[in-house]
Amino acid sequence: MLNSQSRLKVYSGLFLASGWPQLRTWLGRLPSQLETAFGSERHGDWPVWQAALDRLPRIEASKVDLNVDAIFIDGGCGEVHRNLIEDQLRRLHPWRKGPYTIHGIHIDTEWRSDLKWHRLKDHIQSLEGRTVLDVGCGNGYHAWRMLGCGAELVIGIDPTLLSVAQFMAVKHFAGDFPVYVLPLGIEDVPPNLRAFDTVFSMGVFYHRRSPFDHLLELKGCLRPGGELVLETLIIEGEQGQVLVPEGRYAQMRNVWFIPSCSTLLSWLRRCGYRNVQIVDVTKTTSEEQRSTDWMRFQSLSDFLDPVNPELTVEGLPAPVRAVFIAESP
Ligand SMILES: Nc1ncnc2c1ncn2[C@@H]1O[C@H](C[S@+](CC[C@H]([NH3+])C(=O)[O-])CC(=O)[O-])[C@@H](O)[C@H]1O
């Protein structure tokens, strides 16, 4: 089992990131934050996931390609090792974000996260040399893609320990790249760090009970002039319209605010962002989100009205997602 010392080792490259003085306030607190988060080994399944990680064989990667839709890691791996790896990776079920191809094993995840990446990548400022924060990064799929686009350092945060375990499995095989997924929520990032060149918040906004506070927290993470990339569920409608589901939305329990595009644009401006733009609006389809062999639970098609797929099973507008970009003052 990884004890707390060796667990910190996973993040050691990050602690060496003294080249980022703005991050010092946070890095100082990080060891105790990690202790607390992993201390939720109270979390029933963590020992199972940790054991799967511990069983992964060490195989040097001879090729890592982060600029392909299925993040690609390969090396000289025989069938015995491949079977062992696949067995361990499957213990980290459900795999929601991806896809990945690791030593010949294709992890066909619930989400084709590459589709979201393609929708936004040509609209954002170049990530070359930038310090990036990905809030609610899941298992880090987009964080790897950001690195592939030249980011100098990518920090992802996600409080779901299974996502962190999946990231650790991928990084175990990829090697020592400046990308980290921390088992933390946005509320754990010290306020007003003003450290990151680009901050992504994708698929998180509608889970927040207090939308303005989320937009302001994100602004506090950005350096002046930095770029926010915000992706969230929207409804069709005029400025001022917003859906607040009274119960579930597409079977999700924790959905709070789904604004229209012009409403969210005005909220961003109200929070002080400049050059606020909407760069993509796309209906979520079963090509993008579906059950697979690596995510065997229900998925989008089960969450839509079987007679009218324009509606969710609750009778609300079916999921449409939009990407907003904005500049921090
Ligand atoms: N307080 C919080 N702070 C940070 N993250 C949180 C918090 N609460 C929940 N999350 C995390 O936010 C992620 C939202 S998924 C988006 C993944 C990726 N970004 C994607 O765009 O594919 C939703 C989706 O699939 O749309 C989950 O991994 C949560 O654990």
Automatic annotation (TrEMBL):
<protein>
    <recommendedName>
        <fullName>tRNA U34 carboxymethyltransferase</fullName>
        <ecNumber>2.5.1.-</ecNumber>
    </recommendedName>
</protein>
<dbReference type="GO" id="GO:0002098">
    <property type="term" value="P:tRNA wobble uridine modification"/>
</dbReference>
<feature type="binding site">
    <location>
        <begin position="186"/>
        <end position="187"/>
    </location>
    <ligand>
        <name>carboxy-S-adenosyl-L-methionine</name>
    </ligand>
</feature>
<feature type="binding site">
    <location>
        <position position="321"/>
    </location>
    <ligand>
        <name>carboxy-S-adenosyl-L-methionine</name>
    </ligand>
</feature>
<dbReference type="InterPro" id="IPR029063">
    <property type="entry name" value="SAM-dependent_MTases_sf"/>
</dbReference>
<dbReference type="GO" id="GO:0008168">
    <property type="term" value="F:methyltransferase activity"/>
</dbReference>
<comment type="similarity">
    <text>Belongs to the class I-like SAM-binding methyltransferase superfamily. CmoB family.</text>
</comment>
<feature type="binding site">
    <location>
        <position position="206"/>
    </location>
    <ligand>
        <name>carboxy-S-adenosyl-L-methionine</name>
    </ligand>
</feature>
<feature type="binding site">
    <location>
        <position position="116"/>
    </location>
    <ligand>
        <name>carboxy-S-adenosyl-L-methionine</name>
    </ligand>
</feature>
<dbReference type="GO" id="GO:0032259">
    <property type="term" value="P:methylation"/>
</dbReference>
<comment type="function">
    <text>Catalyzes carboxymethyl transfer from carboxy-S-adenosyl-L-methionine (Cx-SAM) to 5-hydroxyuridine (ho5U) to form 5-carboxymethoxyuridine (cmo5U) at position 34 in tRNAs.</text>
</comment>
<feature type="binding site">
    <location>
        <position position="136"/>
    </location>
    <ligand>
        <name>carboxy-S-adenosyl-L-methionine</name>
    </ligand>
</feature>
<feature type="binding site">
    <location>
        <position position="97"/>
    </location>
    <ligand>
        <name>carboxy-S-adenosyl-L-methionine</name>
    </ligand>
</feature>
<keyword id="KW-0489">Methyltransferase</keyword>
<feature type="binding site">
    <location>
        <position position="111"/>
    </location>
    <ligand>
        <name>carboxy-S-adenosyl-L-methionine</name>
    </ligand>
</feature>
<dbReference type="Pfam" id="PF08003">
    <property type="entry name" value="Methyltransf_9"/>
</dbReference>
<feature type="binding site">
    <location>
        <position position="202"/>
    </location>
    <ligand>
        <name>carboxy-S-adenosyl-L-methionine</name>
    </ligand>
</feature>
<feature type="binding site">
    <location>
        <begin position="158"/>
        <end position="160"/>
    </location>
    <ligand>
        <name>carboxy-S-adenosyl-L-methionine</name>
    </ligand>
</feature>
<dbReference type="GO" id="GO:0016765">
    <property type="term" value="F:transferase activity, transferring alkyl or aryl (other than methyl) groups"/>
</dbReference>
<dbReference type="InterPro" id="IPR027555">
    <property type="entry name" value="Mo5U34_MeTrfas-like"/>
</dbReference>
<comment type="subunit">
    <text>Homotetramer.</text>
</comment>
<keyword id="KW-0808">Transferase</keyword>
<dbReference type="InterPro" id="IPR010017">
    <property type="entry name" value="CmoB"/>
</dbReference>
<keyword id="KW-0819">tRNA processing</keyword>
